Amino acid sequence: MLRSRRFQALGLIALLSACADDVSPAAEESSSTGEGDDSLGTTLTTSAATTVSDTTVADSTGTDSAGESSSSDDGATDSGPSEGTGVCGNDVVEPGEDCDGRDLGGADCVAQGYVTGTLTCAADCTFEYGACSNCGDGNQFGVEVCDGDDFAGETCVSQGHQGGALGCTADCSAFDTTQCSDDPSCDEDDIGSVVGQHVASGSTVGEDHDLDQMCANGGSVGRVLTWVAPAAGSYRFDTVGSNYDTSLAIYENCTSWEIACNDDAADGVLDSRIVLDLAAGDLLLISINGYQGSVGDWLLNINVDVPGGPCCEPHGSHGCDGGMCEDDVCALDASCCLAAGAWDEDCRALAVANCPECAGICGNGVVDDVAETCDGFDLLGQSCGTLGFDYGALHCADDCALDSSACADYEGDCCTDNGDESPGCEELGCAAIVCDALPECCADSWADDCAELASTACAVCNPDACGNNLIDGMDETCDGIDLAGEDCATQGYAFGELACTDECAFGLGSCNDVGACIEQNLGTALGTAIATGSTVGEDEDLAQDCGADGAVDAVLMWTAPAAGSYRFDTVDSAYDTVLSLHPGCDAAPTACNDDLGFADNRDSRIVRDIAAGEVVVIAVSGYKGGTGDWVLSVELDVPGSGDCCVPHGAYGCDTEDGCADAVCDANADCCNAAAPWSQECVALAGANCASCM
Q1: Which residue would you say has higher pLDDT here, 671 or 409?
Q2: CATH of domain 183-305
Q3: Nearest to 161 by CA among 190, 145, 185, 191
């Protein structure tokens, strides 16, 4: 047993010697400073515990082969790592570590979600991303000097140059100053390589003179911008949208002659336009000035210039590919060649009228060849109706022949709902009557409301009933619009428009011998609200002189049933009325009133003595052109017959104690023929009349 233990100890010592190179620096330091068996015990514990499974140097009695305890006399304990964790700093990635020294476990910046860079390991065995980079995402970050257009606030000037466009190298490691200039600086804004409408804007008010423009006809102040072509191509620079007469010039640098200069894009146009072919990366200075010193608010547009389309058809680009045709058209309408415009239908029409190459072409929108029956929207006046159909939309096919596929005839029963998308009905006479009142019945569908109207208006649905617009009953003198050729004149009147009542008898309401202005004959009617209506949609028939001059009106005729004093008023009307009385249609008013009085400044009232049988023309209009729903009352006016202590419609009151005089001394309106005995008059009576106290 003793020999076996000796061999075990010798084997363990040999193992420790072989693994000496793997001992951590910390362990080596501990070994160098330890003493005697304590140092060896520590080394044994660290190495054996981490490399030899289930290995021990102690026997069952706790004594090693030298007869010493396996525990240090000084109380030293096992200082190795616990199971599942590694030793940080040994250049080996172990459990619990991202990395260890130069051992990154195969990881790099790309695997960690970055674009490029060098991944390193921190002292605590976690990844260090400081040297990783997302170069190319346009955002300067970390070790990147710049990224795309993000220069971290740097410019050519801050890099020691006079001006120009600063760039960034592809790996984001340095600024690209090849487009920076050391010439005297004149540019005021760097707009990069932006392309589109309104890429820059500003005002030349208060600016100074930087660069000469040969096309500006005199020195003018302006704004100078730096721009770099993003790709090779033809570019259009214009000032469309500016509010003054601009001039535009482009230069290579602050000391060069202008590459191009333009005042007006076309005759009669104040905007400027320049088109240039450029290589990718070309640096330009753009100077926006004003013609003969003009100043104002400017807009700059930079777009890829697209060549024009065909001259004989409308298209989205300005100009056309027709050489002389483009010149001829744009001389007539400059907008056809404006950068902000398009070759629209008007430009196409000018091309057809002025360019020989557009004649006789199917698709040019004009029927100008014997083989064409139509061209575009030019149908030569044809429609579905002229081709014998009842409804629909006629079109022109691509081969310039009429296309009637969307035309159709009315179908279905006139007396029932025919459902959606089934306009009209098979009886054309009925369809005409119904669709005159309800156009949607022939445009959209013959629905319930169409069939309901047909049931009373069409003989095909109701052959014997009054209301079908046909005189087909024994007791009918008329039916709706069917007046059997009669009018007011045949009925013995000089003026008016004959109507048909709901009972299929003549309506003589507007027939009269007074004049053509009469819209309704009231006869000798008396009472409250004997007529109502609206002035909305009316015209002006009679002139009034009390606030309604120029206002539309409703005109009625009334005949006095007996001699007496009559009160005409518009009480309960919905707007500020004006009321006037006339002896005829062409006569000036004999009486006119706007407002009853101070208490009522909307309703109108007139009191007038009228002989028996006298005809009065009544006009209801509105103050200062007002319109609305009106109410007309005509009553006998009996002054002084009402109770002084309660309000009533007549002026004055019936009393023997002088109450009316006392009240009217305080408020003359209470005894005004055009005003009633109002609540205000009653209040005065209560304060001044013994009979009301």
Answers
A1: 409
A2: 2.60.120.380
A3: 185
Do residues 586 and 633 make contact, with C-beta atoms less than 8 angstroms apart?
A: no
pLDDT at position 21: 44
Beta carbons of 198 and 301 less than 8 angstroms apart: yes
Kindly give, in sequence order, each residue whose CB lies less than 8 Å from that of residue 182, ignoring residues fewer than 6 positions away.
161, 162
C-alpha distance from residue 352 to each of 335, 367, 500 (Å): 17, 11, 56
From the candidate CATH numbers 2.60.40.420, 3.30.930.10, 1.10.10.10, 2.60.120.380, the one assigned to the domain spanning 520-636:
2.60.120.380
Tokens linked to 298? 């400017």
> Residues with Cβ < 8 Å from 308, sequence gap 6 or more?
315, 317, 318, 319, 320, 321, 322, 326, 343
Phi-psi region of 108 (alpha: psi -120 to 50; beta: other; left: phi over 0): beta
Quote the distance between the C-alpha of residue 89 and its chain's center: 66
For residue range 318-340, what is the model confidence (pLDDT) as tens digits? 788 866 788 788 878 877 877 66
Token reading at 260: 């191009």
**What token pair was written down for 282?**
């070309």
Q: Which residues touch 149 (CB under 8 Å, ≥6 apart)?
A: 138, 168, 192
Domains 183-305 and 520-636 share a fold: yes
CB 351 within 8 A of CB 312: yes
The amino acid at 444: D
Apex CA 413: angle with CA 408 and CA 415, to 5°?
A: 135
Residues 530 and 559: beta-carbon distance below 8 Å: no
Nearest to 429 by CA among 393, 459, 387: 459
* 677: Cα within 13 Å, side-chain hemisphere: 27
pTM for the full predicted model:
0.32
Single out the residue of 602, 593, 600, 598 nearest to residue 628, CA to CA: 602
Predicted confidence (pLDDT) per residue in 469-478, tens digit? 777 655 688 8
Question: Regarding predicted confidence, which is higher, 216 or 200?
Answer: 200
Q: What is the DSSP letter of 561?
A: S
Residue ranges covered by each domain of the chain: 183-305, 520-636, 638-693
Determine the length of the chain.
693
Reading the block at residue 327, the tokens are 């010149």
DSSP string, 64-118: -TTS-BSS-TT-----SPPTT---TTSSS--TT-S-BTTB-TT--TTTTT-SEE-
C-alpha 642/C-alpha 505 separation (Å) is 43
Per residue in 131-188, pLDDT (tens digit) is: 888 898 889 888 889 998 899 989 887 888 766 678 899 889 899 988 776 665 777 7
